[in-house]
């Protein structure tokens, strides 16, 4: 698909070592830091008027993306939402190209066609980020279907929010995946809100994982801010799916530290809630664990600095890339 | 009084809620947060939770709820946030809402108003930037309205809510802050009536929503060269006002339709076909359609800007038609 | 809406005594017989080439419709599917006008605009019969919403099939009704098949009533062929809903004695299944109960004969009505 | 060999399944029962349950499954039974399937074929009788095909399945039993090419599906009066073949478009607008659109028959245009 010729491939200098799926604490921390710094940059960029369009950030939810994506291997795939920067990076999409896409640059992951809501890197299994709530769940069904059809042993992970569990496509997808016993992990990132609405206002049950029962499917709720717990769960369910055990629904409890999108100050939050969750920030939790198991503050600090420099450099590279010319809009509608 | 389109819509909703206890508002985050685009801001405080309803992310249920409530005599005003999301409840809109009256042999009216934020220009990319009205043009049983200024926004909203039929109400999201006069005692605007917003003699330019401003810009530019465009704001997309457009074409003998969408299956192609059919002898030239490119809406700034028709494109079309 | 002027109102001679909602055994039997004879006539009419279009019949499922609709009162409403003749008649729609609609006649319930799949009689609370699977569940939500909005005390009953529980609109509707605590009884007529597919092929759980749990909703399974059991359940849940207890999901086990639609001989049925269910025909069950509680065969036979004559006469009347003129198609698109 | 359209489609599906192990079929009752319209009859026996999949009643999942499978390199052929039901999975079709390639900057093709039974005439009333193609005309990224004879049905189905892009395949349900020649070694028919099915000089009549037969009937009637109609079968609805139609109009100087659907947002209005734009000088008369009435499809026999355009309506249009 003319992919190799694309500028982005040449211009990108981000090593995609994440594809090696290393899962030591330091590896996970590095992956989460990359995402955190990426999101923080996006936040600053739009505050500075340098990022156009919608910008849904995922600070605070990194452990879910990293824990699940690190449990995947070659050939496995992932779909996610508009709030999908973390998942796409966690699959190994190059950071500079991801920034490039946010900025609408040539060499961005989608060559500037998709933007913040649609970061996609099929080459690392990041099949797409989707802007219509629930719309990608059926598409994950298809990716998992293909794995089963081909007996490839591949697994798909599908990330979505708590609010998405009330839309029709959720229901059809879980039922379909279950009756076909597809290798598919549905990961509901329960960050307590859909836009400005707390879950209890829109959803008559408290544990979303319980909805798995409607489909004869395995369901469980986990702490989505403890990356090692996420990773352990992911490994267990991914192996199960690979071996023909069928799909599962995981409800990962987490928190969206920023507003729903750029313009949302989060005024609807009860006082103290954000602060409580900031104490349970997944980076803080992991760093605490590492400190207690022998890492030093200096080591952690130097990792932070190193990752920060890499992410800064990736952004600088992306900012140096040109905008696609207006005429590029005619490309990529249909394949030849 | 000078107000924004957002304010005019908000006022219309408030006045309708005030005037008729059967009117209620339903949609995602329309109550507590006043809507993602803040059009319903303050209504919860004014009218209470018995009139303004937040919902789960369930567009089929939102529209179905509105249909069933209307079947029971209420006058729901539903919000679908982005017009693109009409696709997730498309069956409710085109197979149910549009057809229930007909299939029942006229046993019932269906006074539902469905509001949606429409159109591009905000770098929201392909799934949040479409003009949604074209999807509904081949479906009899629906009225489609799309204002381009505060007075029309107010007047059409009141008309939509009062109408005994389903009305899809398109609010262009790049225009919420556009300002204009709203009289102290604002009037209902009849659905189905286009407005001549700038009279002229050389060619008729028909536009809607954000393209009305572009057409006026083009008219201004050409006026300096002695070419006078008549600009018509459709205001209602279905039913199209062939009388107003046709009478204008009979005078100007030239037609340019300007829309923020590709040509295929659009209101512009519908309009051109009908006007050609009815006024062929009046036409000095082939009607031109100034439309978006035949692609999804791109994200990148230069690409998106080029995708949206602008005044220059309208001027070029007029130059071609009028050979000036 | 120009309803009073319609020919059907004048021409119809069917007494709509069912609106009185009498619920003695004989009343229920009469109501079920009316439906059975109606459906049998439809079957014969299309076999004879006198009925155009789709024809989905409900012989064997009468007890569900009658049991539920007889639990309703003035102002209550109902929606149903293309297989909705029974429910519409059970609400009290005139039999001759229902025949008229099947035949596409002027004076038919919808003046010939809707046909077999869309029998509607708003005047008796039969808000509509819908051809797209699942599409009317959201509409029932709206009817129940209106009842709550107006504090009218009215309740809506929504009939749908087992297969419909796998479509998105089902999920959205149950969730929405539950979070809003609407007075709405979702009645799933589990007739074991969706078209030609047995439930187990499409649905990974066995008890559909269990899906209520996903919505924090009351759910139960009942024998849909025992009309008094249906009636008792309906009364209990309708009162509960009227009193603000919220919606419920009822799975009524029953059987579709005919094929899915006109052209389906039902070849996919396991041998003996139909025969077994014919023994549990709701009419047979009720008649047996009546015999054991004092009715005589003669009484039952004479009721049958009487109802048969009435239904025959209704059909004859409908057949005498004219077709709507071609020009009538322009009416009823939009209200003035 | 004389076969029905149903048989030609069945053969095409079988040949495609035979030729490529990545092709599979998915839909409601397509396996065990061979489809509600029996188009997939026998394929389960021939290819087994690993290739032909029955599904729950979940159209969003069916289309999503096809999209995801195609993203993974497979070539799904999905069935949506009645085209009207495309409305329940409309988001998957227009916002996802049509846009994924574009939004990703061309990272992927999307070889999905979606089959649907289309159109009226069978007394299925308003929710089972629509021609669905018009809903998709304003959505770039989709191809739409609609054959009217067995050879085209075969050839277009093979082309659709081989195409790297999403193709919506409309099968008119009143035509499944229509017969025609299918060669021993049937050929692929290129998507995007209309066919002149009857050459003529006086006017160009463009039609699709069931209307092709009506146009040919009209041409036959008028031939007896010395008026010679050129009849073009579009075969592909998107992209429209403006070259073939335009060249014909340049010769005949008159255009009649015939479709089983109202005018608003239809292919006929798209075609007329484009042809007028490109061939205005060639036209002796205003192009006529012979279309269905602006109402849902009615049930009653006389009403439905009148709703469907017929040969008489085409003859009248030709008489009007040609003043004969
Ligand atoms: C079908 C549809 N309806 C509404 C929206 C608008 N919308 C965007 S994000 C969102 C909230 C989603 O909440 P959740 O699923 O919890 O995900 P989160 O944003 O919290 O990650 C809504 C309603 C949409 N994009 N698509
Ligand atoms: C959205 C949609 N998909 C498919 C169909 C075709 N269809 C008509 S009836 C039916 C089976 C429905 O089964 P069930 O819900 O069990 O109801 P039953 O017919 O058994 O009463 C199907 C698939 C439809 N009408 N609508
Ligand atoms: Mg959330
Ligand atoms: Mg069933």
Features:
heterotetramer, A: 336 residues, alpha/beta, six-stranded parallel β-sheet, two-stranded antiparallel sheet, disordered N terminus, B: 324 residues, seven-stranded mixed β-sheet, five-stranded mixed β-sheet, 14 strands, globular, binds thiamine diphosphate, binds magnesium ion
Describe the structure.
The complex is a heterotetramer, with two copies of chain A (336 residues) and two copies of chain B (324 residues). Chain A is built from twelve helices and eight strands. Chain A has 336 residues and is an alpha/beta fold. In chain A, helix 2 runs antiparallel to helix 11, helix 2 crosses helix 12 and helix 5 crosses helix 12. The N terminus of chain A is likely disordered. Helices cover 35% and strands 19% of the residues of chain B. Chain B has eleven helices and 14 strands. In chain B, helix 3 runs parallel beside helix 4. Chain B is globular, with a radius of gyration of 19 Å. Chain B starts with a strand and ends with a helix. Classes of the chains: A alpha/beta (336), B alpha/beta (324). At the B-D interface, helix 4 and helix 9 of B face helix 4 and helix 9 of D. Bound molecules: thiamine diphosphate (2 copies) and magnesium ion (2 copies). One thiamine diphosphate sits at the interface of chains C and D.
């Amino acid at each position: 698909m003319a992919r190799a010729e694309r500028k982005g491939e040449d211009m990108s200098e981000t090593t995609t070592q994440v594809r090696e799926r290393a899962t030591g604490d330091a590896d996970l921390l590095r992956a989460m830091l990359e995402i955190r710094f990426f999101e923080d940059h996006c936040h600053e960029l739009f505050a500075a008027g340098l990022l156009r369009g919608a910008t849904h950030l995922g600070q605070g939810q990194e452990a879910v993306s990293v824990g699940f994506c690190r449990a995947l291997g070659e050939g496995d795939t992932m779909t996610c939402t508009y709030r999908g920067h973390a998942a796409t990076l966690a699959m190994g999409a190059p950071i500079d190209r991801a920034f490039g896409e946010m900025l609408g640059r040539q060499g961005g992951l989608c060559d500037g066609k998709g933007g913040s809501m649609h970061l996609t890197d099929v080459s690392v299994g990041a099949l797409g980020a989707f802007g219509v709530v629930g719309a990608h769940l059926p598409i994950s069904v298809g990716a998992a279907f293909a794995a089963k059809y081909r007996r490839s042993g591949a697994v798909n992970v599908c990330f979505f929010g708590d609010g998405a569990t009330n839309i029709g496509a959720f229901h059809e997808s879980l039922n379909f995946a279950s009756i076909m016993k597809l290798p598919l992990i549905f990961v509901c990132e329960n960050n307590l809100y859909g836009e400005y609405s707390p879950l209890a206002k829109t959803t008559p049950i408290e544990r979303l994982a319980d909805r798995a029962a409607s489909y004869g499917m395995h369901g469980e709720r986990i702490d989505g801010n403890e990356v090692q717990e996420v990773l352990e769960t992911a490994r267990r369910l991914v192996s199960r799916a690979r071996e023909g055990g069928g799909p599962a629904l995981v409800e990962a409890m987490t928190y969206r530290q920023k507003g729903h999108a750029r313009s949302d100050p989060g005024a609807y939050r009860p006082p103290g809630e954000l602060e409580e969750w900031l104490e349970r920030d997944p980076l803080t939790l992991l760093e605490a664990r590492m400190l207690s198991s022998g890492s030093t503050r200096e080591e952690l600090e130097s990792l932070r600095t190193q990752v920060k420099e890499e992410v800064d450099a990736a952004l600088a590279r992306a900012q140096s890339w040109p905008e696609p010319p207006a005429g590029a809009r005619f490309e990529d509608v249909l394949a030849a | 009084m000078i107000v924004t389109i957002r304010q005019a819509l908000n006022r219309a909703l408030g006045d309708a809620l005030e005037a008729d206890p059967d009117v209620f508002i339903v949609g995602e985050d329309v109550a507590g947060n006043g809507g993602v685009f803040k059009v319903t801001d303050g209504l919860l405080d004014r009218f209470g939770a018995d009139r303004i309803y937040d919902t789960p992310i369930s567009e089929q249920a939102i529209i179905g709820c509105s249909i069933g409530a209307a079947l029971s005599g209420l006058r729901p005003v539903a919000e679908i946030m982005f017009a693109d999301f009409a696709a997730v409840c498309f069956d409710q809109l085109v197979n149910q809402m549009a057809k229930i009256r007909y299939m029942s042999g006229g046993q019932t009216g269906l006074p539902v108003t469905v509001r949606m934020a429409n159109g591009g220009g905000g770098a929201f990319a392909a799934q949040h930037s479409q003009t949604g009205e074209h999807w509904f043009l081949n479906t009899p049983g629906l009225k489609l309205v799309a204002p381009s200024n505060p007075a029309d926004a107010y007047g059409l909203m009141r008309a939509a809510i009062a109408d005994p039929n389903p009305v899809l109400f398109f609010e262009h999201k790049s225009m919420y802050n556009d300002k204009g006069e709203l009289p102290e005692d604002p009037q209902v605007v009849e659905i189905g009536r286009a407005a001549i917003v700038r009279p002229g003699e050389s060619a008729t330019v028909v536009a809607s929503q954000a393209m009305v401003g572009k057409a006026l810009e083009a008219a201004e530019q050409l006026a300096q060269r002695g070419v006078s465009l008549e600009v018509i704001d459709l205001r209602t997309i279905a039913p199209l006002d062939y009388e107003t457009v046709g009478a204008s074409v009979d005078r100007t003998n030239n037609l340019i339709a300007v829309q923020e969408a590709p040509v295929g299956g659009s209101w512009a192609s519908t309009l051109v076909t009908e006007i050609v059919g009815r006024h062929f002898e009046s036409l000095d030239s082939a009607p031109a359609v100034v439309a978006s490119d035949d692609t999804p809406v791109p994200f990148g700034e230069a690409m998106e800007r080029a995708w949206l028709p602008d005044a220059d494109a309208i001027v070029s079309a007029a130059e071609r038609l009028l050979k000036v």
